[in-house]
Design goal:
Radius of gyration: 34 Å
Shape: elongated
Oligomer: single chain
Helix content: 40-55%
Largest sheet: none
Order of helices and strands: HH
Mean pLDDT: 78
Number of strands: 0
Structural class: mainly alpha
Low-confidence stretches: none
Length: about 80
């Protein structure tokens, strides 16, 4: 009976042992995609325009009046 099963498996092309997940094509494709994504991300990060430095403008804090300018189209109504 076992030889009959083996013959049927041969005809149907069924493997008797499962392929390890690390040898499957899907795992290889996923690993290749992740490696490429990491490399593209790294290249994007290091290719930034580093010639322009960030400059911050600071000033001394003083007490005084606060002026607010509102620009809008239509009717301006208070919210509170």
């Amino acid at each position: 009976m076992s030889t009959e099963r083996e013959n049927i498996k041969d005809v149907l092309g069924i493997r008797s042992t499962a392929t390890p997940c690390w040898r499957s094509g899907r795992t290889f494709g996923l690993a290749a995609f992740l490696i490429i994504a990491v490399l593209v991300g790294y290249a994007f990060l290091i290719s930034g325009n580093t010639s322009q430095k960030v400059q911050h403008k600071t000033d001394i804090v003083t007490r005084g009046g606060l002026t607010i300018t509102v620009t809008a189209t239509g009717t301006v109504e208070p919210t509170n």
